[in-house]
Write a structure and sequence with these properties.
Blueprint lengths: L6 H4 L6 H4 L5 H9 L4 H20 L4 E5 L5 H7 L4 H9 L1 H4 L3 H13 L8 E6 L2 H9 L5 E4 L9 H7 L4 E5 L7 H10 L5 E7 L5 H9 L2 E5 L5 E5 L3 H14 L11 E11 H6 L2 H4 L13 E7 L2 E7 L1
Parallel strand pairs: 1-2, 1-4, 2-3, 4-5
Antiparallel strand pairs: 5-8, 6-8, 7-8, 9-10
Helix pairs in contact: 3-6, 4-5
Bound molecules: S-adenosylmethionine (SAM).
């Protein structure tokens, strides 16, 4: 049977455990922001398209379980017109850097409550870090959070009750920390077979996850012809060892990791019947250049007199 052993590959990557375990996300945004961490932002348009397809297929607003959700940043970028990059600047302000975590949580609760929810999905999350989950639920990004390490432990009855309602499971920057062990414990607890959206570094083979998902009747598709930048390499050692690992795996890094950036693939796993009706290629359109700084553009808004054109700065 295929079984993942990511521990050797993980020696390639820098360790950031400290920043995941603070009472608020300031260190997280500072450290990962300085490495141009961007996967929540580059994943966002694609996740929106998949969530819209899922909602269309079922006629209901999906509940998304974000695995390795950390401080709930995916919920922030999907629920509100916010970006990782924009949030990073919020926390980098010198006024923000001197306040207590309690004050920051109070301000952030008000901040997130002040934005209209795009309404594409409800968000719940699972992470090994109790402080991160506590922050994400306290500020209202996640409706519920589960603190668990399902690589080594079991899902509590309360945790199982929370993840049960998940229609979609997603993860960014987390596979590698977690393997099929975590996902199978979650799948055992869900009512229906969910869709699983994985943004996974090309460094981590997905075979054993796909094999596990197949046992639950889920087929796995990988989006061809597109990759998603996660962040810059931290140092020459991370760069060199990643290239060496990719070479061992037979993955060609030319023009991708060789340019100094971690790249992730988009992988979607879902019930065979759903995949047959709408292949991944029909759901996802990549609009290159979308995230670049751009001048005012025309958009539609729904006004009292129907659809109107407005200029968004
Ligand atoms: C790079 S962060 C990604 C966070 C978030 N998904 C994002 O993209 O901004 C990795 C996250 O995985 C979490 N993590 C590490 N080991 C885990 C485990 N065994 N189970 C659940 N989460 C874990 C960490 O606490 C951290 O929040």
């Amino acid at each position: 049977m295929l079984r993942t052993n990511f521990s050797r590959i993980n020696q390639t990557k820098a360790v950031f455990d400290d920043i995941y375990a603070m009472d608020d996300p300031r260190a997280y945004f500072s450290v990962l922001g300085n490495l141009d961490y961007m996967i929540p932002d580059v994943a966002e348009p694609v996740v929106r398209q998949i969530l819209a397809a899922k909602a269309q297929a079922t006629g209901v607003q999906p509940t998304v379980l974000d695995v390795g959700c950390s401080y709930g940043i995916n919920a922030a970028v999907h629920r509100f017109p916010l970006t990782f990059g924009g949030l990073r600047h919020r926390y980098a302000r010198r006024e923000m850097r001197v306040i207590s975590s309690e004050t920051l949580v109070r301000l952030d609760r008000n901040f997130y409550a002040s934005w209209p929810d795009v309404g594409l999905a409800r968000f719940i999350g699972l992470d090994i870090s109790a402080p991160a989950i506590n922050y994400a639920t306290s500020v209202g990004l996640l409706e519920h959070g589960v603190v668990a390490d399902l690589e080594t432990g079991t899902l509590s009855a309360e945790g199982a009750r929370i993840v049960r309602s998940a229609d979609v499971i997603m993860s960014t920057g987390c596979i590698g920390y977690v393997t099929e062990k975590t996902f199978s414990k979650i799948l055992d607890a869900t009512d229906e077979r969910p869709w699983i959206i994985s943004f996974v570094l090309r460094l981590f083979p997905f075979d054993s996850l796909a094999a596990t998902f197949a046992k639950y009747g889920l087929v796995t598709e990988r989006l061809a012809g597109a990759t998603f930048i996660q962040r810059r390499f931290r140092d020459a050692e991370e760069f060199e060892s990643t290239l060496a690992t990719l070479a061992t795996l037979g993955v060609d890094a030319t023009g991708l990791e060789s340019e100094g950036l971690f790249h992730a693939d988009l992988i979607l796993s879902r019930p065979e019947a759903d995949a047959r009706i709408t292949p991944l290629e029909d759901i996802v359109t990549i609009a290159s250049g979308r995230g670049r700084p751009i001048g005012p553009r025309y958009v539609h808004i729904e006004g009292n007199e129907g659809l109107q054109v407005t200029l968004e700065p």
